[in-house]
Amino acid sequence: MHLVKKIEIIANAFELSRILDGLDKSGVHGHAVIRNVAGKGLRGTAEDLDMTMLDNVYIIAFCMPEYVKPVVENIKPLLNKFGGTCYISDVMEIRSIKCVASL
Which residues form a coiled coil (predicted)? Predict the structure, then answer.
């Protein structure tokens, strides 16, 4: 077990490739993307036609703590320009390197 950072980004799907490029440039090469995310934020729910035509995505990635600063430097300008939010938190990673399953 060791400490890693969890990066969670909710943004417009239109910006997905730019955000993933930003993560990659920061040294964070693995991620998961969940599409068609709905919810309620500080601005309320997205009910108007423009917002419902543009789906949101949820991006989750994990990295070592030293990669957080480059992530913020690369992602923050995108979120400031196009909207979205990013959360970074401490989590513990449990990595199994010994497979015990039998075939």
Answer: none
